[in-house]
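Figure-free illustration: sequence to structure, shown twice.
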Amino acid sequence: MKLVLTVEVPSIVAVELGRYRRVTYVPGDCELNSRVRAVRRIVRADGTLESERVEVEVFVPEERRRAVEAPRSAWITPEYLRCKALVSKNRKSLAAFLDSGDRELTLAEES
């Protein structure tokens, strides 16, 4: 099974600041559409499940890896990054997983 989601990857993003609308680069989240190998529900401190976001292990293409501003601990392998995905942007793709009540979905890697 292959699952492709829109995820939020911590990156450096361009923004316009100031009166003269100068472009500067600041840390922020950049959207990436890519395949994921694991999806996990986020458990809050009080034990409830977060309904807005899920944690994913996403494949980051080689040409995009240099722009990722994530700590080393977020990288599971040199290709896969642990980050967040918004449920609202992936509602159809995540519907079966969210309705199942499972806390984790691990997908088999295709060879």
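We now fold a second protein in the same way, so the two outputs can be compared directly.
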Amino acid sequence: MNNTAKYISELLYRYECVILPGFGAFLTKRQPAMIQDTTHAFFPPQKIISFNSQLQNNDGLLANYMATAENISYTDAVAKIQRYVLWLNDKMSAGNRVDLEGIGSFYTSVENTIQFEPSQETNYLAEAFGLNSFISPSIIREKEIKESLSEISTTEVVRETYKEQVEAIEETTPIAFTPEKRRQRPYLKYAAILVFGVVIGSLALQQVNTQTNLENDRVIVNAEKEIENRIQEATFEIASPLPAINLNIIKAEENPEVKDLIAKETTSSSSSKYHIVAGAYRIKANATKKVNKLKSKGFDARLIGVNKYGLHQVVYYSFENRLEALKALRNIKKQEDRRAWLLVQDL
């Protein structure tokens, strides 16, 4: 006797996928509890079974379970499963409908494809064991109906009583009602519109001012970041290193002319606080090369020292007057290098 369908049914309680090798896989999906408002039917949570004919590889789950249950070898269990699959295919090829107890029914469609109808009798969700679907009739509360009827009857009695009293008063003393004309005050309407417009205008103006301040702050932050990035720029030119130069150093004390020249340059440099920066370099030799290149173009270029990032700064010019420095900066940006910038610093 082949109990393959029974073993598949038992495994569906514990696993979401049980493969019948060479035939297909049975898949389960959890469905929560439901209530149908129209029929007042209650359905417990359950596992819905579906079938996928593409999953046919043997994962060993069914064969191992069958071998343990029947106390046979794994090879014998696989052989029994194969015989069961052949029997299923022969039955459906003959046009018969095959029922697997508790699982569902298989049959072949007109297009010669396998069709599966899951069984609705078995709930494979172990947590819902013992829970069945049921239909609850609608509840009609007699007390509420009686109270509503009594309230309606009481209201009708009071209404009829008042009606009779009013009719009796009208017969003895007729009452004439003269409608009073309300004085119109159109200015109040326009005043309210004016106040509303003033409030809306002030709110809009406040919002515009807030947005303007935020935009100004953003522009300032971006400008500061741009300056920091340019300060940190370093140019490394090591493809053609400078040749070694032998210099004969003459002490200033020994040559009065050199001493006067150094003093003059020091005085001129110290008095200039506006510097147009051409670049900053990590290696001093590259900075010196940049100075020579700028001097060959006619600029009064020089080194002004090392900044806080350890870079040697090269400038085109240094000025005492801010307006002259800005004018020169515009020309340099336009004709030489748009990345040049103005450094304000006392050296």
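Summary for the second example: Confidence is low (pLDDT under 50) at residues 232-255, 257-270.
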